[in-house]
Write a structure and sequence with these properties.
Helix content is 30%, strand content 30%. The protein contains 18 helices and 25 strands. Pfam families: NUDIX (PF00293).
Length: 528
């Protein structure tokens, strides 16, 4: 009987600990398996104490030190490991995951050996002096740092344990031949590489600026049950895909797109036993229908809460509160927060306040790139003031605004493409009105505070007077502008946002007086 035939004929395998199978095992097959030649099986434990040190033992029957474990009898691996730990050192172990499998060829010991190493911890803190040693087998036992332990092992065991330590730091199980990695293809090689855990969360907002906070049926290891929608990212998905899957599973938002990245937080391995990279993405603002469709999709979420940013912060753990604050700042400013254990790093474009920035710069702790990244940013915009022969102001109605307010023709400056405010003014007029006209004099600059968003610097250029033929040639981009109109100066407050109306009146006054550019803050002239 071939090995594949034997496996295929086994039928239903008994459940662990059940003592019986769901259907009888073939007697002939059982007899065959008892006589079938098999390698020796060994199982060992990489035991850590509360300080992370490794437990090593000194056997009486061979040279060098070893780790806890031994040969498997007619029993399950973990049963054998528990028995060996109890017999050798009197310990009850909490078994963890499989770290390494080592196939040792028969040329080494005269018979093939398959050695397994599991992660394990003591059920409670036990000093080495309190271990109960089986003195006919174990001469001594100690908890020592990894680098000390590795110097005490024979060469083959040293390679095997070193591979187990590496696997312990990652997410893989080491596959070895005589302590050396078995060659793997490129995809398997990547799958075996040590890596941090990755989590993805979504900062979900609604039209009122509220934040969606979930209440879970469990705490997150810090006694707190509240956090943003999200969870761990699977090995076959990106962080954004993981966030999308999680909000679909947790609250039924499977059809809502995940937006831009707001924050990245690196948590050191000391916190969870393995490094964690956490991503926070923007989702929303949700429509009223999407908000109404939210439901608790799995058993992990017991309630959903729409909270103001301040209320949301109060519900979260201290680390969650810091991460939320950084993500909200990034959402408002258009930047991204780079965090280390929820604290903004030197060089983070978001989250490093003026006092901390000054402290870092005074200490010479940041380079030119970090200095530039931390500096506050401002949005640069440009508009063009056109009037007709009757002195009325040309206004346009944005298709994207919902407040019914109109604006002047204009838009943002593509400074990253080398565009100047004047160049942007000409481009915007061409795109929005279909008129190719060089802008005239700069009438006003306006510094607009928009906290918590980045401030805006708006340049107001003189577009001149439009004739009837000019107005007849106006062509609007339907996807951006719905209509245009002419408004008398005394009617501007009825059509424009308050600060823009004040800005336009100041620009009109500067044009009429020929006094040059006027400096404004929030639409009002700055006293000289």
């Amino acid at each position: 009987m071939t090995s594949s035939d034997a496996v295929s004929s086994l039928g239903t395998v008994p459940e662990s600990g059940s003592g019986c199978a769901s259907e009888p095992v073939d007697a002939d097959l059982a007899a065959y398996l008892r006589q079938h030649p098999a390698p020796v099986i060994a199982v060992d434990a990489l035991v850590r104490d509360e300080e992370g040190r490794m437990l090593v033992v000194e056997p009486t029957y061979k040279d060098g030190w070893d780790i806890v474990g031994g040969l498997v009898e007619d029993e399950e691996l973990l049963v054998a490991l528990g028995r060996e730990a109890k017999e050798e050192i009197g310990l009850d172990l909490r078994m963890g995951r499989l770290l390494a499998v080592d196939n040792v060829p028969k040329e080494v010991f005269g018979r093939s050996l398959v050695a397994f190493i599991y992660a394990a911890r003591t059920a409670h803190p036990v000093p080495a002096r309190d271990l109960v040693l089986q003195h006919d087998e174990i001469r001594a036992a100690e908890f020592v740092p990894d680098e000390v332990a590795l110097t005490r092992f024979p060469e083959g065991l040293r390679r095997r344990v070193a591979a187990a330590i590496e696997a312990e730091r990652g997410a893989h199980t080491a596959h070895l031949r005589d302590g050396r990695p078995v060659p793997a293809g490129r995809r398997d090689h990547y799958a075996l590489l040590p890596s941090p855990m990755v989590a993805a969360a979504a900062l979900v907002t609604d039209g009122q600026g509220r934040v969606l906070v979930l209440e879970h049926s469990y705490d997150h290891g810090d006694g707190n049950r509240f956090w943003l929608p999200g969870g761990m990212v699977a090995a076959d998905e990106s962080a954004a895909q993981g966030a999308a899957r999680e909000i679909g599973e947790e609250v039924g938002l499977g059809d809502v797109p995940v937006g831009r990245l707001l924050a990245v937080d690196s948590t050191p391995a000391e916190v969870h036993g393995r490094a964690l990279a956490s991503y926070v993405f923007a989702v929303g603002p949700l429509t009223d229908d999407q908000v109404a469709g939210i439901r608790c999709g799995d058993g992990e979420v017991v309630a959903t809460h729409w909270l103001s940013p301040d209320e949301a912060a109060q519900r979260l753990s201290p680390r969650g509160r810091q991460r939320l604050s950084a993500a909200l700042q990034a959402l408002a400013s258009g930047g991204i927060a780079h965090l280390d254990h929820a604290v903004p790093c030197a060089g983070s474009p978001v989250g490093v306040g003026p006092a901390r920035r000054a402290e870092l710069e005074a200490a010479g702790a940041v380079g030119a790139a970090e200095h530039l990244a931390m500096r506050p940013k401002a949005v640069v915009g440009t508009v063009v003031l056109f009037t007709d022969t009757a002195g009325r102001v040309l206004l346009v109605e944005p298709a994207y605004r919902t407040d019914g307010r109109w604006i002047l023709p204009g838009g943002g400056v593509d400074s990253d493409a080398g565009e100047s405010p004047r160049g942007a003014a000409r481009r915007e007029v061409r795109e929005e009105l279909g008129l190719d006209r060089a802008p005239g004099a700069l009438l006003a600059t306006d510094w607009v505070r928009r906290h918590p968003c980045s401030p805006e610097v708006s340049h107001v250029y003189d577009g001149g007077v439009l004739t009837e033929s000019d107005l007849a040639a106006v062509r609007l981009p339907a996807h951006e502008l719905s209509a245009w109109r002419l408004s008398a100066p005394d009617e501007l407050d009825a059509w424009l946002p308050a600060r823009m109306a004040s800005r336009v009146r100041a620009a009109l006054a500067a044009r009429e007086a020929g006094s040059g550019t006027v400096e404004l803050e929030d639409g009002r002239p700055v006293p000289q």
